[in-house]
Write a structure and sequence with these properties.
- The chain has a single domain, classed as Beta-galactosidase, Chain A, domain 5 (Distorted Sandwich).
- Helix content is 5%, strand content 44%.
- The chain is built from three helices and 23 strands.
- The protein starts with a helix and ends with a strand.
- 42% of the residues are buried.
- The structure holds 6-O-phosphono-beta-D-tagatofuranose.
- 6-O-phosphono-beta-D-tagatofuranose binds next to strand 20 and strand 21.
- The site of 6-O-phosphono-beta-D-tagatofuranose has 11 residues, from strand 20 and strand 21.
Length: 301
């Protein structure tokens, strides 16, 4: 390739507002700067790695030891899990959380909307994806950077047969000390607990993180709020067309096994993942679409 990748995307730039630059590991990213907030999204996995509303500190966690290369997921930000969540049921060799978070996507458009910027990236089925999953699809990740962070995952079935998939916006939020957080999820009554052989449990009251936590909450539609007394802020995640919320923190022992997580970083992250997984997997008929949306806000503490 003669022109660096960033030159290929020069056409999409909005000078002084949205630029395509070389990021970590030389991977191209779109850097957004507006009066309402700033943010970054890599073409690698259409992966949001930063969102900072005006007058607030960074809201997303990003590991200092993340890898930045094809075939590896960035540790932190918002990885996109598709078309399966965790391991692929019928293929132990398949990549965890699917294959779209570890490949380069393409820019579809960059637009201004009121005080925000909407960056749309897409990826499509090809011979490589069909090695893992035979479906024909187009996936668009539409991200709105402003006083809120809006993420919409649009799946189009471009094939001739119905397709079924799982999906998750695996968001890592930055917290002062995960053990001090209180998370409210009003309709998160039942969950499967991965730390207890996936048995079904009932959630009593607020979600507190006091050990390794890896829960798939079922049939949840309500907004989730993480109260962070250390950073003195409350992060609210509102969902559309998502019936699961995954809550994860590896805690000390599991974190020590993760080469792309620096020492003690596990205390500064909490994953709140709008998703459709397990029995809530999505089915889309040929030619039809499904859009899952999540909006993150920093609200008064
Ligand atoms: O969403 C929680 C989870 O499924 C955990 O079980 C843990 O595996 C986490 O995702 C991270 O997965 P990754 O493949 O990104 O290391």
């Amino acid at each position: 390739m003669t022109a660096p990748l960033t030159d290929l995307y020069r056409q999409f730039e909005i000078p002084g507002v949205a630029e395509v630059v070389s990021g970590n590991g030389g991977l191209p990213k779109v850097r957004v700067t507006t009066a309402e907030g700033s943010g970054e999204i890599y073409l690698h996995g259409a992966h949001v790695t930063s969102w900072k509303p005006a007058a607030e500190d960074e809201v997303l966690f990003l590991s200092a030891k993340s890898q930045w290369e094809d075939g590896r997921a960035i540790r932190g930000g918002v990885p996109i899990c598709f078309p399966w969540f965790r391991g692929k049921a019928d293929d132990p060799k398949a990549p965890a959380h699917g294959f779209v978070r570890t490949k380069a996507w393409q820019i579809e458009s960059i637009k201004q909307a009121a005080g925000a910027v909407i960056v749309s990236m897409f990826t499509e089925s090809d011979d490589n994806t069909k090695k893992w999953w035979p479906a024909e699809f187009r996936l668009v990740h539409r991200v709105t950077f402003g006083s809120e962070l809006g993420m919409e995952l649009e799946v189009t079935n471009t094939g001739k047969t119905s397709l079924q998939f799982e999906e998750a916006l695996h968001a890592y939020f930055r917290v002062g000390n995960v053990e001090m957080t209180h998370t409210q999820a009003p309709d998160a009554f039942h969950y499967y607990d991965k730390t207890d052989v996936h048995t079904k449990h009932t959630q009593l009251g607020e979600i507190m993180i006091t050990s390794e936590t890896d829960r798939v909450y079922l049939n949840t539609r309500d907004p989730i709020e993480v109260e962070d007394p250390v950073l003195k802020r409350r992060i609210r995640v509102t969902k559309e067309n998502s019936l699961n919320t995954v809550v994860w923190n590896p805690w000390e022992q599991k974190a020590a096994l993760m080469s792309d997580l620096a020492k003690e970083e596990w205390t500064q992250m909490l994953c709140i993942e709008p998703s459709n997984v397990l029995s809530f997997a999505v089915e889309v008929a040929p030619g039809q679409q499904h859009k899952m949306k999540a909006v993150a806000q920093v609200v008064d503490f």
